[in-house]
Amino acid sequence: MNASIAKTGTKTVSGADADRRARLKRLRAELTARGLDGFIVPRADEHQGEYVAGRSERLAWLTGFTGSAGLAVVLKNKAAVFVDGRYTLQVRAQVDTAQFDCLPIATHMPWDWIAGAMSKGGRIGYDPWLLTPAQAARYEAACKKAGGKLVPVPGNLVDAVWADQPPPPRAPAQVHPNKYAGRTSADKRREIAVALKSAGEDAAVLSAPDSICWLLNVRGADVPRTPFVLSFAVVHRTGAVDWCVDADKITAAVRRHIGKEVRLHAPGTLGDVLDRLGQGGKRVRIDPAGIPMWVMARLKRAGADISRAADPCQLPKAKKTRAEQAGMRSAHKRDGAAVCRFLAWLAAEAPQGGITELAASDRLLACREATGKLRDLSFDTISGSGPNGAIVHYKSTPETNRTLKPGDIYLVDSGGQYLDGTTDITRTVAITIKGKKGPTREMQDRFTRVLKGHIALAMAKFPPGTTGSALDPLARKSLWDAGLDYDHGTGHGVGSYLSVHEGPQRISKAASTVALEPGMVVSNEPGYYKTGEYGIRIENLVMVGAAETPRGGERDMLGFETLTLAPIDRALIDTPMLDTDERAWLDAYHARVWRELNRAVDARTRAWLKSATKPL
Amino acid sequence: MNASIAKTGTKTVSGADADRRARLKRLRAELTARGLDGFIVPRADEHQGEYVAGRSERLAWLTGFTGSAGLAVVLKNKAAVFVDGRYTLQVRAQVDTAQFDCLPIATHMPWDWIAGAMSKGGRIGYDPWLLTPAQAARYEAACKKAGGKLVPVPGNLVDAVWADQPPPPRAPAQVHPNKYAGRTSADKRREIAVALKSAGEDAAVLSAPDSICWLLNVRGADVPRTPFVLSFAVVHRTGAVDWCVDADKITAAVRRHIGKEVRLHAPGTLGDVLDRLGQGGKRVRIDPAGIPMWVMARLKRAGADISRAADPCQLPKAKKTRAEQAGMRSAHKRDGAAVCRFLAWLAAEAPQGGITELAASDRLLACREATGKLRDLSFDTISGSGPNGAIVHYKSTPETNRTLKPGDIYLVDSGGQYLDGTTDITRTVAITIKGKKGPTREMQDRFTRVLKGHIALAMAKFPPGTTGSALDPLARKSLWDAGLDYDHGTGHGVGSYLSVHEGPQRISKAASTVALEPGMVVSNEPGYYKTGEYGIRIENLVMVGAAETPRGGERDMLGFETLTLAPIDRALIDTPMLDTDERAWLDAYHARVWRELNRAVDARTRAWLKSATKPL
């Protein structure tokens, strides 16, 4: 958080603020020029991704807010930025609050705000590439109710006033070899073709980069942290694909790899591809939660018969092939060794003082880079000590950077992108000086409750058909029993050298109808956060597979294989709180970590690992 | 099961079968007379209730099948009865399989069967009073796909050929006094009026008898086991109600009680009431999962603006008032004492031999009747010993009636209707001769696992907003761990001197978005069933309320208060399988059962109770 802003309360117009005021002024002039009364500026790009290219950082350019989710609405005489609970502090530090109201989206829906602020007959513009049909419908209803109108605008208004906007990314695509993917693109396309046929559909439009990269077995580098090739595609019931992608990204190797069934088109010609579907009277599947409104409108105009259903690649992609499963195991072993090198260093250095959050995350990055296989981190490392650990999506900056101190709890959530798999691990460790300064009894109680939840999920056996929402309470029970809880999901899907967050499965309180199936990878990450004091999270990735049938068992059961390998800090465990089974699980897990990693680490790390993986 | 049918395989046309063949023939003649090619005969009545009046037993009259759910389709040259998994055996024993195919609905959807069997241009009739819009839509789509048509038929075809069909029930309604209801009808109607207003609706049509009885604070006796007044009602945004109910049911006392805001109409004039709504261009809420198709069609024809949403009474009804909560406690104490008298008798008599399932359920009924307060059972008692206990919805008949034998497990699921509350309890007991013949180790293992699930749910603490589907796995975990499960829900809502099965909350694997709220009553009834050997179920009713905040707890939590009072059979518990908390729960529960009931039972029962509630 920017200290000067926090201190003064009233803000002086800084250089950056003056810049942004000018930008806002130019945007409002553009509003007038186009006969609009307002414009919606989401953080999302055309693909609704978590990481976006520089040119899509319109929200940050306009408002200064750099969070990974949010939205601004600019009217002629007022403007607001809407963010979720993670960003309520950050938004006030980054945004000029004289220009923008900063509102929590949980209680202030932007469509309601617009409806309340717009005048009768008002026209609110939006970029139909950036809102999904599901989102646009909400704004449309609200504008209508307020006696106004929601208007799709050709050409984004921010782009019109952003002189030095970066060009679209053009990173070369790469073939994702079969030894990692485990299935050819042709085979995947056949599966999707069968699904479309049985649903009575002729084609599906894909806008999710992970779906397209999975389907074509390609990877790219268009956005940070995630090896995406930004593009659009239409997959037909024949198995053929029309791929609208910048030709600069397509190397000769990729062209050979994709074969004749995948026809290349310039990105600007997606409309023509859609028009042909419409003119042929085709039934076309779109995912109303992911596709741009622009695509749906174009299809409708062209006369297509629209089928609203889930992106057909999401479920098959979530069920990892044998090769992907093996790759995930290798990637986690490699990544686990790197994390252990980091943790051993931390255990030696942090108690002496002088290690900051940023220094720690730099060191962790260096340990991963030293594997020689790291392609990128899988997300920005969360490196939070003491009170910063209680901020669930904390990102350390020079302004917030804390030095780790004995008595602190330090939470580090990080992951790597490797060709054979994507990792995501959180460890929470006590910074201790032996016999002098250690964690409090309360910290141990909370950590042990989180651990009991983690173990309950790791050990769970459940029948086929069970959804993640049905398993969620197992991870929370030990906290609920003490009148505690955490305000985030327990598990998200993870891609295979793709996005660290993927669906359709998840483990959370929200009702889900997607069953956990063999080969799916999810995180197991219960936590506990005490605002202003400390945060705890224990996260391993786990993979769904057949569980051993116990003697006398009558039904096939599924269970989780833990992929992540790194010790869980014994100093934070209140051992008597664990029952026999929980203790046996932890000891067996630690024995496995030792067995799988001790020969993969240096002598100093090995010595630390020996002690860190001792039985309780 | 009818032994002769089971033995012979081919059936002789019995007297009943010959009767039914004549009925089927008359129905087919009626089909021809009306220019139809088929007719749908559901078990449901106009109110989609579980118990129906005699005149609505069309399915049983036509086919012989007496289960509580099912449906027949009669075409000119073939016919079928569709039932769920509970009734696959029963249907073949009761129905003349030369006339009707007997099909499991899980794999044979009746609409698909119709589509496959009907010829192009075919017309399938249905009674629009007996299908909901949601159901009719499925048949309509299937008929259309097969090139035919679904046709609503005025006047049920079965009624046309059923000479001695009973008349509609006309049991007098009774005032449900405020001391039991805890809220006046006027107060409830105000709440519904506010809900309609805030949803922008003018009125809601009610067809669920429990909604109408709750709203008007009346009870009746039109169907077995449930004190319903069968009727329809329209509740307006003013709080006024149009009640279409047989005048014979309305005593002077009820007329005085309901007051002027409730206008009485003859049942046959519902159409006029709906027409007035339509002519006034009113926005009218209907619940598409419960209302008859007839009502929706009439409203549409009259020009009403239809809003599809849940019956507005269901959620408020589920949250019991303080008076209803107190009533539930009293009813459960009274009912628990009766059950204890029965269990004490059973423990003394059954090991001697000669007690049959029917004798046992008769005795249980007598114990409840001896309270002097029993209005009716709340459902047909399930009294199953040995292999019969494994049939989840078993109903003992002279043909299936088994004598309880030492070494058996006996399962009895029963409940009572009292003015102050409705009960539902299942106990599973071992028929033992001390030191000689007792339950097997496997039975004890399974019983203890079911008990652990029951206790986990009884002890659960959970945050506001938690749904029943999120709690369901707590009740199954101990079975899942052993590769076991049960194929029914864990908990259903229970009315207050109303239906023993009510929504909208439930505890089950099916995804639910309805949160458990204080005052809701649900059953806690995990089980285990070994086909052909034995069945286990442990069921108490529990009520949602605030849970005590533990020391250091940060959030308000909810929990369950167990209402049901009767010992859980210690002979079936493998004590070492229980952990300290589980054991403490059971001992505390038994101590409470003793404390609350010992002065309410006779000396013989008291002696038994003393021993049955000893600490483990």
Layout of helices and strands:
The structure is a homodimer of 616-residue chains.
Chain A: H1 3-8, H2 15-33, E1 38-42, H3 58-63, E2 71-75, E3 79-83, H4 88-94, E4 101-104, H5 110-117, E5 123-126, H6 133-145, E6 149-152, H7 157-161, E7 174-175, H8 178-181, H9 185-198, E8 203-206, H10 209-216, E9 218-219, E10 232-236, E11 241-244, H11 252-258, E12 262-265, H12 270-279, E13 283-286, H13 293-302, E14 305-308, H14 314-318, H15 322-349, H16 357-369, E15 376-377, E16 382-385, E17 409-414, E18 416-418, E19 421-422, E20 425-430, H17 441-459, E21 461-462, H18 468-480, E22 491-493, E23 502-507, E24 521-524, E25 527-530, E26 534-537, E27 540-546, E28 558-562, H19 580-597, H20 603-612
Parallel strand pairs in A: 1-5, 3-4, 5-6, 8-13, 11-12, 13-14
Antiparallel strand pairs in A: 1-2, 2-3, 7-9, 8-10, 10-11, 15-18, 16-17, 17-20, 18-19, 21-28, 22-23, 24-27, 25-26, 27-28
Helix pairs in contact in A: 5-6, 12-13, 15-16, 15-20, 17-18
